Amino acid sequence: MVSGSFGFPIAKDRPMALGEVHARPYPLIESPRIIVQLAFMTDGGAAVDNAVLAALSRARGVAAPQPDARHYVMSWGTGTLRWERHTEFSTYFYEGPVPAHYGGEITDHPFGDGFSPPGSLISGVRLEVRKWTAEAELSLASFDPASLCFSEVENGAAAVITDFRQDKDGLTRILVLDKGLAPARVGALAQRLIEIETYRTLAMLGLPLAYSLSPQMRRIEDELTIITQRMRQEAKAGSDEMLGEITALAAELEASAAASLYRFGASRAYDGIVQERIATLSEVAVSGYDTWGAFLQRRLAPAMRTCRSIEERQAGLSRKLSRATALLRSWVDLQLAKQNSELLFSMNRRAKLQLRLQQTVEGLSVAAVSYYVVGLFGYIAKAVESAGLPIHSGLLTGMSVPIIIFVIWRIVRGIRKKHGDESGGATGQS
Questions:
Q1: Between the ranges 205-209, 228-232, 395-399, where is the mean pLDDT highest?
Q2: How do beta strands 120-131 and 172-178 pair?
Q3: Residue 144 in contact with residue 104, Cβ under 8 Å?
Q4: What is the number of other CB atoms lying within 10 angstroms of the CB of residue 145?
């Protein structure tokens, strides 16, 4: 692909890398305005979101987004609907005119009976931007004072209020009081506040998993303690059985660690985003009220520490199981080496017995062969004596006995030596 006035070839991913900077522009929001954002876990993948957006587009008579799109904007009556796909969730962001009074019914929004959610709802936010007036400040009474957060932002040009409670529709209520912010600044502030609520909810998903893993971790730790005590008492006697038990514990631990790896990693990443968004607010505390940052720090930090604690326990327990496994394997290897040594000793003893038996058989073989050869020689001597030659067959046969035995012994020894050399040569070659 060639583009630009210089005519240089363009890297395949360059347009996407450059476009990502401009992919999520802050909406321009004129106050007063209301925003409703819903975040859904998209376990079904992009196809489910595409089907939802296609149905919404047909209802409004506009073109549906491309299948590979990650952002989409359409007009919705007097408001606007924005959709965005993230790694494991998608968001539907509607902004429109505010009700007559704070907390009133929203008359025109896309999340009615005709809306088919793409997955399970994980976060819902209702944010109202209103002019900072004495009447608007009276809305503070509708929030829970036990968790009310009220702080000034944008150098005192706005205030942000929430109690992190959900209304009857299950939406977290946020109120922004505006003293004259430009539409771009209102949009940026609203986006940050919504992201804080969305990402802090996603970050907290690791906490239920941590609670569910804690009993399992405790049980594995207890069983490992019992096995290590048995290792001290039973020493090498039950090493095979204990090795099997520890291997089963290690497999169970690694399975749970692998299953929780993504969730804990995602919780850390979401928590980091929340901290970044809070820092960009540059809050100034209002006397008598908590700031968003202080409130979330007290609630979110312990949950993240719990998740990190479970991860650290998993890692530490994995190391302990590995050490115990290595110790038991060394015991098993020593036992195997001892058994092999005993087996080799037994084989060596059998080989010696076999050699002695072979030597005995060889001696008997020399005697037997010599006996037959002497017999044959005796027949020949008798035949020669019968022919009239002046010899004594008995004397000649008797004199030949030691000579024949020596010759036969040399032949057998030579054969055995030859076979031994061949066997040694084959062993060396192997």
A1: 205-209
A2: parallel
A3: no
A4: 10
Instruction: Tell me which of 263 and 47 has the higher pLDDT.
Output: 263
Give the least confident one: 110-119, 126-135, 250-259, 288-297.
Answer: 110-119
* Cross-strand partners of 159: 152, 177
Q: What angle do CA 124, 130, 134 make, to 5 degrees?
A: 125
pTM of the model: 0.74
Q: How far apart are CA 333 and CA 335, in angstroms?
A: 5
Structure-token pair, residue 118: 């793409």
- For residue 174 the two structure tokens come to 């946020």
pLDDT of residue 424: 57
Share above pLDDT 70 across residues of the chain, in percent, rounded to a whole number: 91
CA angle 220, 223, 227 (to 5 degrees): 135
Q: Using pLDDT thresholds of 50, 70 and 90, give the confidence band for residue 401.
A: confident
Question: Closest Cα to residue 115, out of 193, 196, 187, 169?
Answer: 169
**What phi and psi, each to the nearest 5 degrees, are found at residue 105?**
-70, 140
How far apart, in whole angstroms, are the C-alpha atoms of residue 277 and residue 413?
A: 96
Omega prior to 32 cis, within 30 of 0:
yes
User: In terms of Cα–Cα distance, which of 261, 266, 249, 234 is closest to 122?
Assistant: 266
Selection from 163, 156, 126, 120 nearest residue 141 by Cα: 163
User: What is the rounded distance in angstroms from the CA atom of residue 225 to the CA atom of residue 221?
Assistant: 6
How many DSSP H helices and E strands does the chain contain?
A: 8, 9
What's the one-letter identity of residue 291? T
Length of the chain: 430
On whether the CB atoms of residues 143 and 163 are closer than 8 A, the answer is yes
Beta strands per DSSP E along 97-198:
120-131, 149-153, 158-166, 172-178
Query: What number is the average pLDDT over the span 327-343?
Result: 76
Please write the tens of the pLDDT for every residue from 138-193. 888 899 999 999 999 999 999 999 999 999 989 999 999 999 899 999 999 999 99
CA distance 41 to 169: 18
Instruction: Using the CB atoms, write b or e for 60-78: b if 16+ within 10 Å.
Output: eeeebbeeeebebebebee
DSSP-based three-state secondary structure for 77: coil
